[in-house]
Every structure is written in C-alpha cells, then in structure tokens.
Design brief:
heterodimer; A: 838 residues; alpha/beta; FAD/NAD(P)-binding domain; Sulfite Reductase Hemoprotein, domain 1; five-stranded parallel beta sheet; B: 125 residues; mainly beta; Rieske Iron-sulfur Protein; four-stranded antiparallel beta sheet; three-stranded antiparallel beta sheet; 1 helix; 12 strands; 46% strand
C-alpha cells in the first residue's frame, strides 16, 4: 500500500481528498492529511457568513467523521515543517516523522501584510481564517463597550477587502475602505463600473477612500488611526488588512523545490513540481507564471493531481484558465468574465449604465460583432450565467448584441435558452459539471428533481453561482422528457383530483366508466385513477366500497387489509378506544375460533391477522352479531379518534375526552378522503392522547377545547397547528366539518392533511379566514355536504354480508369452495405468522 | 418456491389441447378478475369489458410468490392491457405477461374462449 501525504487542509486540499476517494483505485493508497488550523477544512469563500451566525460547523467542507469514514487520517493543528525529498519523508512541528510515496502540497496562501510602520499594533488584523474572525469579533466587542460609534478600516478595496468591509458592518462598527488604486476592485472592474459599485456601497453606509497610500499606523499600543499624507489622517480603532495574498511556500523554499521569483511553487500541467513525487495545487502552485486565487482553478488542479497520481496521465491542466467570477458583495451583485477590459482595437464595447439604480453592464464583442469576448456586471448579475456560457462556448450572439444586456421589455431579456447550450458547456466550474452531465442524470432516470441532480453531479455545491442555471436546466430537461410536474391523476386524465371532484359533483356521475368516457383520454383506467374516482364517488355520493368493487384499491376491494401472504387482517371499530369486557371477550373468542394472530394496532385498536378471503365474511358475521362494525382500517378514511381517559376518571382531566372522542369518531366514520384521517382528544394539556400528532386534535383547557389541525406521524412527522382556542363542542364539530370537507375537496390523491395544509397558499391564516370567517362564503356548503355524508353512513361489512351478490367476491376460487393452497404459516410466540419471503 | 412458478407456462391459442370450462361469465366482475382452479393450478381470469376481451394469467405474483393477481385492478398502461398486483402495484401485460414497471420475470398467460355464457381457459398438456 502506498502513502500519500497531503499538506494543507483548506478548500483545495479537501477537494483533493474528495476527488481521490471517489476513485476506486484509491483503495490501494493510504491518505494522511495535515492541517495547521485547529479544525477541518472550511469554506473560506463564504467566510463572511461566519459573522452572521458564528457557526464554524456550518462552513465545514465535510465533518471530521467524513475523513474517518473514507479511511483518511486527518491530523489538524499540526504544521508540516520539513520535507526530505531524498528519503521521501516529512517532519512536523510536533516532531512526527512520516514517509510518503507522493506528497501533495496544498498549503494555500496567507494574507499579505504590507511593510507599513506600526502594522504590529493591537487592533490590526488580517482576514483569512476563522481564528482571525474570532479575534476581530472579540476586539470589536471590547471597542464597542467604550465607544459605541467606533470606526474600523479595511486596507484593500479588492474582492476580499469588500468582503471584510461587510464583516465590519456586521460587527456594528463604522466601516471604511482604504484603497491604494484610484478605483475599487481594480483587477475585475473598469473605472465606470467601479464608480457604480462605489456609489452603491456608499449608499448603504460604507466610507470609501481611494488613491490612499498608507504611511504609518498611528497609536501607542493599539491602533488609533492611519496616516496617508502629512495632514491626511483617518481615525480608526481597528484595521483589517486585506491587501492581497502570498503563497505559503516556505516549505518549498527549505526543501529546494523550484520556485517563482515572487513566490509560488513551479508546477507543470500535471501539477508536478520539480520533484516528480511532489505535487502542488491551489494558491501555492505557480502555473503559467500565475498564482490563481480563485477556488475553481484550485479544484481543477486537485482533480489533475488525483488523476496523475492514480496513473491517468492524460488529465492535464488546460492552458487557458477561466478567471470569470460572480459574487455578491455586501448584497451587491458583481461579476466579470472573459476579457473585462478589452482594448478598443480588438472589438467593441456595449455599455448600459443606470447610476440611479446602481446598475452597470458592459459586454465586449468581436469587431465582426459575432463573438462575445467578455464583460462586467454590477448591480444585477442575473445575466451572468448565460453570458458566461455564451462566452465559454463561443456561441452565436444576436445581430444586435445589446439585446444580451438590455432590460426585458426594452428589446432584451429573451435571448439565450439554457437548452441551446452545447452538451460540453461547463455549468458548474467549481465541480466541473457540464450541461451534458446534468441533463444526462435526468435522462437516465437517476435524477428526478433538482435535489437529485445536485446530489448526483455535485453541481452547485461549490460557490453556488450556477444554481439558477442548474435549476433551469433541470426543469427544462424534465419538461422535454414529458415529466413536467403536472398534478394530473395519471395518464388517463388530463385532470387533477380537484378537477375530477368538481366534475363528478356537478355532473352527478355514478360510475367510473361515465367519468372515464366523458373526461378521460380514451384509455381504460389504471391502478392510479380507479381508486381516486372510487374515493371521490364515496366522498361525494357516500357510496360504500361495495358498489363498484373492481375499481377499489387492494384493501377496499375486500374491505380488509391485505397482508404479506395475501391473507387479510380485520379491525373492528372501537370508538374512542372504549370497549366493554364482553366485547373484548368476544373479540378474543372470534380470534381463537379462526386462529388469527392478534395484536393491538398502532392506533390502539385490536387487529386480527391471517384471515383468508373465504373466512372474511364468516369472521365479520360473528363480529357484527356481537355488536361490532367495520373499523375502516383498510380505507383512506377515518381510522381512530384516540383518547385519554379524561375527566370521567382522571384526576387532572378538564373535560370528557372519551365521550367527545367517541362522538367525533362516530360522526366521521366511513367517510372517504384523499388519505387516512386520524383524530385525538386529550383531557388536559398533559396530552396523553398525542392529539397534536393527528389530523385533528383537541386538548381540553379552561373554558373549552383548543383545536389543532394538520398533524401527522408517519414518514414526515409534523405537529398539528393551533387553529382555535377555548371553543365549545359545537364549534369544534363545525370547524372540523368545514376543515375535512375542504381537504376532501382540494387535496391531491394520497396527500395527508399535513402536507396539504403545508402547501396551502396562505397557510394557516388562510384556513382560518375560510373556516372561521367564511371568507369564501362556502362554510355552509361544506357543513351541509359533511352532514349528508354523516347521515348516509352505513357499515359496509353489514351491507356486504347481507347481500348474496356482494358476498360472491369473498371466494378464493370462482369454481371451487377450496381455499388458497399456497399459504404456509409458521409458529411465532404462541401464535402464527406467514412463512418468510425469500 | 420456484417449484410453484415452474408450473405456469404460457399457452398459445394454437397449442390448446384442453378447454377447461371454468365458470359462467356472471361469476366475474365487469372490468375485474377472479381466480379459477384447474387441477393444481390457480389461473386469474379477467373480464376486460371495456375492450370486450377476456384475459387469463397465472394467479401467482412472481414478485413474492403469492396467489393474488386475480384480485388486482386492471386497466391499461400506455395502451397495453394490464393487471396491477395488489401487493406492491407491479403491473403486468395481460397480452404477453411482461412486467411493465420493473424487471420481474414475465407471467404466464392463457387463452380464453366464451361459449354459451361460459368461460373456458385453454391448457396444453
């Protein structure tokens, strides 16, 4: 097994590890990573977010466990001090000595501190690590105690300097930016865009000082000001230096690797240094005489080094490196791409400027007007992704290139559809993901939505700048595949459940065929639309599942829950969970008679398992004879109303939760809905009935009931929301009637109340307006419809066993009285269970 | 368990040697199915009234080897007549037995003829 030592655990060092372990050949290597900082690699690009939440963990590229899970030894807080090229060994500040086969240097850079007199004074910081930020926060807090209006300056008006300026604002100090050049962001912006940016930043409270060369830092022990010229002084009590970066190349110096004149370790396009066993990546690598201070080229370098080490020597760093950037500085979009400053001889510039809105857009086009060469955007960078792609891929541009940047409605805004991009177009430059990869993962069926695309391709997980484009591509690809997120019930209808509800109600249809023939797409229905229509017929006409049993879902068809081996389980209704000893004995005797496995359900009812199709009517006849009725455990309908014992027995009870629970269960029993419905009634706030986990829940309080709606256990647990307080029994029923009916009318198939309520536009407030204030004027209709369903209730098992025609379906064979001979049961804790599935 | 599924082999109409008189047509629900017993075989028979056609296939779901297909809903999947297994909604073509939403083995299908309001299932021995 070979050993790779990675020196440096910053963003690029981490990326090397991530890309390395993703390769299957990596199993043959041991990877050891040294980091000088006390924590694993974090996202330095978004460092200023630390000021918002001070959550260092949130910035982590991956938690410490990730390294362990991937068999990487991560050693933090330990600096590598020497490289012994000849013996292929390193030593660390803690005198550890380790051998390597390959060494990867990813030590990054440090902040450049110019040699200004007094720079060592207290209150002068650099902006680079989380520790730097913690130091600043502590110092700022101390300053504000004595002077709430303390000022702080940032030395450097570049990209990082402006980020640091935001940090100063977030710390509540008066922010000043001091820049040597006559404009902000001199490397990325031209003078006009720089002015637009300056105006914008000044308007939000930043003080900007340009063309200032700092002579010395004033103050005795701590900083009190900055002196530029003789009488040109800026009083500040804190200074953050952000005047550029210097590669952390001291290791290379001492070990004799070839270096650049102004620092940086010289690498070739394999990322190899002058020693073939040593690679350098990121901000210490001097490639093409350049240090690349952006994360995307650093990630590319990491990828090249991984492939080179694993023997895939064809992966090389490209000659030209795209330095386009898009960022949000203090809430202002700033982007530049390609050649932002183009000499007039090479092409023409088209400039759109609106200082009142702090907008600036410039594009540079070739002399023949056919190619986009570069550009600058300040104030609004929404066009960036598309412009950048057009530039990268050399795509054709409109005859009037101004259309690319003009606001929509003024001749612009419509050019450039993401789907026009070539497959090789690189969408995410941090992770090097192409359009082809994004579309491919959707086309192959691997990804079904944006979240899948992101997790499959990693697009958008770096700087995040490409997210809008990834989203557009995902949506456009899904659409092109016809998987537009339509909410039609299935291929047989171009209608959703709510449409079908209205149609069936208005037209008064009574059968599935009527609905299909009049409103379908000419097909014959399927396992999706048949149960939906069956449920709607039940919700609207109070039809039981006996009426058209061949369109019912598996369970409804036989009024029982189909189990693993094709036998069924039987759950009689026990309203509110209250049961007499005689009934309990009857249940036991019936279970015994038919040898049924018996268990208390999750909804605290009694479930009898293992009934064959032929046994079902016999069991139900016995149950009905003992006063039971269907529990609708098989239906998308009310299951139980769970109750605690309440004031009838409990010494804490505020009201009769059992009595009210029984009343509610009997009221809504048998009503078919888009999904199952559960209720709960608790007699006091101790909430023993767990009512807030139910679709409707009640808690007795002083002066009435508190009503909670939209709770859910299941795969996505959700607490019900407090809907009304201290209301009486009558009002409770009124509100639940209206609520359930509204849900039954408008929810999607198989959507529980929780999901429905969550997606309801206007949320709980809207529900209150409709249900309590009757904003839509439908409250009475809703109540009447519910009352009709309540009045028409009929136990469908009683109905079935009294009708010989309906009984026919409970035979396993049409031509024999025999039962299924394929069933095998095995013993289980004094009962039985079906033989295990192979 | 494979011993069970091996008993079911598709019978083509031209290979039928025995027409088994199963049950009167009224024993089968409209656009639904029921199970016919023939010797030690269980055959799901469907009255696809919307197509005015009858279909038959093994009652055994190849997914979990349970005798349940006759209790499934029928309809069409992109125009192909199908039955959906009531356990996990795996769907199978009623025409050739192919699993239309997965890669389960195809189920065996059988010819049906209707004579004097009686349903006959075709077997070849």
């Amino acid at each position: 097994m070979k050993t790779i030592i990675v020196v440096g655990n910053g963003m690029v060092g981490y990326k090397f590890c991530e890309k390395f372990v993703a390769k299957k050949e990596s199993k043959e290597y041991k990877v050891i990573v040294f980091g000088e900082e006390p924590r694993p690699a974090y996202d330095r690009v978004h460092l200023s977010e630390f000021f918002e939440n001070q959550d260092a963990k949130a910035l982590e590229m991956a938690p410490a466990e990730w390294y362990a899970e991937n068999n990487i030894d991560l050693i933090v807080d330990e600096r590598v001090t020497d490289i012994h090229k000849a013996s292929k060994k390193i030593t660390t500040a803690k005198d550890r000595e380790l051998s390597y086969d390959y060494l990867v240097l990813a030590t990054g850079s440090s902040a450049f501190v110019p040699p200004i007199k007094g720079v060592e004074k207290e209150g002068v910081f650099v902006y680079r690590t989380i520790e730097d930020l913690e130091g600043m926060l502590a110092y700022a807090a101390k300053l504000k105690q004595t002077n709430p209006n303390a000022k702080a300056a940032v030395l450097g008006g570049g990209l990082l300097g402006l980020e640091a300026g935001k940090a100063v604002m977030d710390m509540g100090l008066e922010p000043h930016i001091v820049e040597f050049a006559p404009k902000l962001m001199p490397r990325q912006l031209d003078s006009r865009s720089s002015q637009v940016l300056q105006l914008k930043l000044e308007s939000i409270g930043l003080n900007i000082h340009l063309s200032k060369a700092t002579n010395q830092i004033l103050g005795d022990k701590a900083i009190t000001g900055m002196e530029f010229g003789e009488d040109d002084v800026l009083d500040v009590e804190m200074l953050i230096i952000s005047a550029g970066i210097r590669p952390r190349d001291e290791l290379a110096k001492t070990s004799g690797l070839e270096m650049g004149v102004r620092g940086g370790i010289v690498v070739d396009n394999k990322m190899q240094t002058s020693d073939p066993n040593i690679y350098a990546i990121g901000e210490i690598a001097l490639y093409n005489q350049m240090i690349y201070g952006l994360v995307a080229p650093g990630y590319d370098m990491a990828g090249v080094a991984v492939d080179q080490i694993l023997g895939d020597t064809e992966t090389l760093m490209p000659e030209e490196i795209d330095m386009s950037t898009k960022l949000k500085l203090i809430g202002v979009d700033v982007a530049s791409f390609g050649e932002p400053f183009m000499p007039a001889a090479k092409g023409h510039s088209i400039i759109f400027e609106n200082k009142t809105q702090h907008l600036y857009k410039r594009i540079n086009v070739s002399l023949d007007g056919k190619k986009l060469l570069g550009g600058i955007l300040v104030g609004d960078a929404t066009d960036y992704s598309m412009l950048h792609q057009i530039y990268l891929n050399g795509m054709a541009i409109p005859e009037d290139p101004a259309q690319l940047i003009l606001p929509a409605g003024e001749g612009g805004g419509s050019f450039g559809d993401v789907m026009d991009l070539p497959d090789e177009a690189q969408i995410c430059s941090c992770e090097n993901v192409t359009k082809g990869q994004i579309c491919g993962t959707i086309e192959s069926g691997e990804s079904k939505d944006l979240a899948d695309v992101v997790s499959c391709t990693k697009a958008g997980t770096g700087c995040g700048g490409c997210k809008p484009m990834v989203k557009d591509l995902t949506e456009a690809t899904l659409k092109s595949l016809g998987i537009e997120v339509k909410d039609t019930v299935c291929e047989h209808f171009d209608l959703n459940r709510q449409d079908l509800y209205k149609i069936i109600q208005v037209k008064g249809y009574k059968t599935f065929d009527e609905v299909l023939d009049n409103h379908g797409n000419g097909g014959h229905g399927c396992e999706l639309c048949k149960p939906v229509v069956a449920s709607l017929m039940a919700s609207i006409n109070a039809d039981t599942a006996n009426k058209e049993y061949a369109i019912q879902d598996s369970n409804d068809r036989f009024l029982a829950n189909i189990q693993r081996n094709g036998t069924y389980s039987v759950v009689p209704r026990v309203p509110g969970g209250e049961i007499t000893p005689d009934k309990l004995i009857a249940l036991g005797e019936i279970a015994k008679k038919y040898d049924l496995y018996t268990k208390v359900t999750g909804g605290v009812r009694i479930d009898l398992f293992g009934a064959t199709l032929n046994q079902l009517p016999l069991i139900w006849k016995d149950l009905i004879d003992h006063g039971f009725e269907s529990g609708h455990a098989y239906g998308k309908s009310l299951r139980t109303v769970k109750t605690c014992v309440g004031s009838t027995w409990c010494r804490y009870g505020m009201d009769e939760s059992v009595s009210f629970g029984i009343e509610l269960e009997n009221r809504y029993r048998g009503i078919r809905a888009p999904h199952k419905i559960k209720g709960g009634v608790s007699g006091c706030i101790r909430e023993c009935a767990e009512a807030r986990g139910k679709d409707f829940g009640l808690i007795a309080v002083e002066g009435g009931w508190n009503l909670y709606l939209g709770g859910n256990g299941g795969a996505t647990p959700r607490h019900a929301e407090l809907f009304a307080e201290q209301i009486d029994n009558k009002t409770v029923i009124k509100y639940i009637d209206r609520y359930l009916m509204l849900y039954m009318r408008t929810a999607k198939p198989l959507q529980r109340t929780a999901a429905w309520q969550e997606r309801l536009e206007g949320g709980l407030e809207y529900l209150k307006e409709v249900i309590i204030d009757d904003k839509l004027g439908i409250a009475e209709d809703l109540e009447n419809e519910m009352q009709t369903l309540v009045n028409k209730f009929e136990c469908e098992w009683t109905q079935a066993i009294n009708d010989p025609e309906m009984m026919k379906r409970f035979n396993h064979f049409v031509n024999s009285e025999e039962e299924d001979d394929n069933l095998v049961f095995v013993p289980l804790r004094e009962q039985k269970m079906p033989e295990k599935w192979v | 368990m494979n011993i069970v599924s091996e008993k079911y082999k598709t019978v083509k109409p031209e290979d039928v040697t025995t027409w088994f008189k199963a049950a009167p047509i009224t024993a089968f629900p409209k656009d639904g199915g029921a199970c016919v017993k023939y010797k030690d075989l269980q055959i799901a028979v469907f009255n696809f009234e919307r197509l005015n056609t009858w279909y038959a296939c093994q009652n055994l779901s190849p997914e979990k080897q349970e005798m349940v297909l006759s209790r499934g809903m029928i309809g069409d999947h992109k125009g192909i007549p199908m039955v959906a297994c009531p356990l996990h909604k795996k769907i199978f073509s009623l025409e050739n037995g192919d699993n239309l939403n997965g890669d389960l083995e195809a189920i065996a299908t059988y010819p049906i003829k209707i004579e004097n309001d009686f349903v006959y299932v075709g077997f070849s021995e």
